[in-house]
Amino acid sequence: QVQIVESGGGLVQPGGSLRLSCTVSGFTLSSYSMSWFRRAPGKERELVASIVFPGGVINYADSVKGRFTMSRDNAKNTVFLQMTSLKPEDTAVYYCNADRSAQYRDVWGQGTQVTVSS
Fold it and tell me: What's the CA dihedral at 61, 112, 21, 49 to 10 degrees?
C-alpha cells in the first residue's frame, strides 16, 4: 500500500527553524522526483521545493530560496525540508508528493501544520 506521512510541524516564533520529514512506503522515492507543497488558509497550493529525478537537482520557490533546504535519505525512504528564518507568511499545512509521477501523484499524506507566530 502506498502511503505518505509528513511530520515535524509545529508552532515556532518568527526567525525560528523547523525540520519537516516525509516518509514514503510502497515505492522507492529515490527513483522519483519529490516535491514539498504548502497550502495556507484561503490560498492556492504552492510548490515550495523539488528534488528532480534523475539528476537530483533541487529547485526552490523564490519565496523560500536561501531559507529552506530540501534533502533526501534514500535508506530511510524519506525527504526532509529544513526551514530556517521562518516568517509568519510561511504558516501553512505542508505536504510532500511525487508530483511528476503519473502513478503516485494522486497519493497525498495528511500534511503537517507549520505555524509561525509570536
Answer: -10
Query: Which grid cell is 19?
Result: 525540520
Predicted confidence (pLDDT) per residue in 56-77, tens digit: 899 999 999 999 999 999 999 9
Low-confidence residues of the chain: pLDDT under 50: none
- CA-to-CA dists, residue 32 to 16, 46, 55, angstroms: 31, 20, 10
Q: Contact at 8 Å (CB) between 100 and 117?
A: no
Cell numbers of 61, please? 520557490
11: CB partners within 8 A, 6+ apart:
115, 117
pLDDT at 86: 98
**Comparing C-alpha atoms, which of 102, 93, 109 is closest to residue 48?**
93
Could you tell me if 25 and 3 are in contact, meaning their C-beta atoms sit under 8 angstroms apart? yes
CA separation for the pair 47, 52 (Å, rounded): 13
Mean pLDDT over all residues of the chain? 96
